[in-house]
Design goal:
Blueprint lengths: L15 H9 L18 E2 L12 E3 L2 E5 L5 E5 L4 E6 L7 E9 L5 E8 L6 E8 L5 E8 L1 E7 L5 E8 L14 E7 L5 E7 L16 E6 L2 E6 L4 E6 L4 E6 L9 E2 L5 E2 L4 E10 L5 E9 L7 E10 L2 E13 L6 E7 L4 E5 L5 E4 L3 E3 L2 E3 L5
């Protein structure tokens, strides 16, 4: 994998030279946790999963790639291409996929929107896709346009999205609504609804680019990274407890607007999130890239662990996974998780790597250093 500019979020400090520059642009300091280090890789993929457009994510034993140019999802395991699924819904030829996820037993769930061939009415959907591309069961979410999906049990699907406004459905509706819904696949019923739209910052119309908004379920916990509002959110499906942590505010690498609707120029220093992963243990990790747009410094990359405290959270740097972009063997991006391991790429290496995360025993860290 290579770096993917255009995504947004925060990153800590990599060197004393960058420290002063980042402090002047509001980039937060990382959590003061010492000796966190990334263990040596235990395994790799047998290939270099590079894609010129879009961004694949490793989840539950599969690399899941949603093609941004066609309604197609590619699934890979560690060794080879397992399936290329061309999604087909009769009566809807103009399909656009927004996201895809896999269940614990390897079934594919997809989401998207399309105009009907007759009448042109727009419908959005989620559904289970077979390897032949047939979607069944399929749930018509109508005006509610999915941005991200995830499943905890394979029978219900969490959908993070926005409500389209008639008559053209090209803008967001003004009425109050929740951005998170839980649909039951067998009958399409909404069985839960959370997170009022008014509790978030304004979202860019057309959706948020990966990984500015990510959602993943591990066990009974749904984890959401919402980059525009700088939040990590967890919903415990066992007791319906919702918890939100505010992350340090940073400059976002996306089009921003002032109160009058005018565009705000991009800052010179831009920090972009490049990946997130929540493990089965509940630990949360993210990778970031920092770019100086005037060319005065090289791009820096790094892996961080989320540290929660009350209603606030910060990022602790992982030793052995901080460095300068483009350097042979240096950490590149966090690409997902199989639940137990972090999956990531390194510059100049033609594999994705699997490493167990740092673990503590009492007050001491138990893990090997990067080799």
């Amino acid at each position: 994998m290579r770096g993917h500019p255009g995504f947004a979020l925060l990153l800590g400090l990599f060197s004393l030279s960058l420290l002063a520059a980042q402090q002047t642009t509001g980039v937060p300091k990382e959590a003061k946790v010492k000796s966190l280090s990334l263990p040596a890789p235990t395994s790799t993929t047998a290939y270099d999963p590079f894609f010129s457009e879009g961004r694949p994510v490793w989840e539950r034993g599969y690399l899941v790639y949603v093609d941004p140019r066609s309604p197609r999802v590619d699934l890979y395991d560690k060794d080879k291409d397992r399936a290329s699924v061309k999604v087909v819904i009769p009566g809807y030829s103009d399909l656009t996929l927004s996201d895809a996820t896999v269940t614990e037993d390897g079934h594919l769930i997809v989401s998207g929107c399309s105009h009907a061939d007759e009448g042109g009415k727009i419908h959005c959907f989620i559904g289970m896709a077979s390897r032949e591309g047939r979607v069944s069961p399929i749930v018509d979410t109508e005006r509610f346009a999915p941005r991200r999906i995830s499943t905890c049990d394979g029978e219900t699907v969490w959908v993070m999205g926005w409500l389209r406004a008639p008559p053209y459905f090209d803008r967001e509706g003004d009425e109050p609504y929740d951005v998170l819904r839980l649909y039951r696949l067998r009958d399409g019923k909404i069985v839960d609804s959370e997170l009022p739209r008014s509790s978030f910052e304004h979202w860019p119309i057309g959706g948020l680019g990966l990984p500015e908004l990510t959602m993943q379920c591990r066990g009974t916990t749904l984890g959401i990274y919402e980059g525009v509002s700088d939040e990590w959110i967890e919903y415990n499906t066992a007791n319906s407890q919702l918890t939100r942590w505010k992350l340090p505010e940073v400059t976002h690498h996306s089009i921003q607007h002032d109160s009058g609707g005018g565009q705000i120029p991009f800052p010179i220093h831009v920090t972009s999130i490049t990946g997130t992963a929540m493990l089965d243990s509940g630990e949360v990790y993210a990778s970031f890239g920092h770019v100086v747009r005037d060319g005065s410094a090289r791009r820096t990359m790094g892996l961080f662990r989320l540290e929660k405290s009350g209603k606030q959270a910060s990022w602790a740097p992982i030793a052995g996974a901080q460095g300068t972009g483009g350097e042979q063997g240096a950490f590149d991006e966090l690409c997902g998780t199989d639940g137990q391991n972090l999956v990531y790429s390194r510059f100049g290496e033609h594999h994705w790597f699997f490493s167990s995360p740092p673990h503590y025993q009492g007050s001491k860290l138990v893990s090997s250093s990067w080799r």
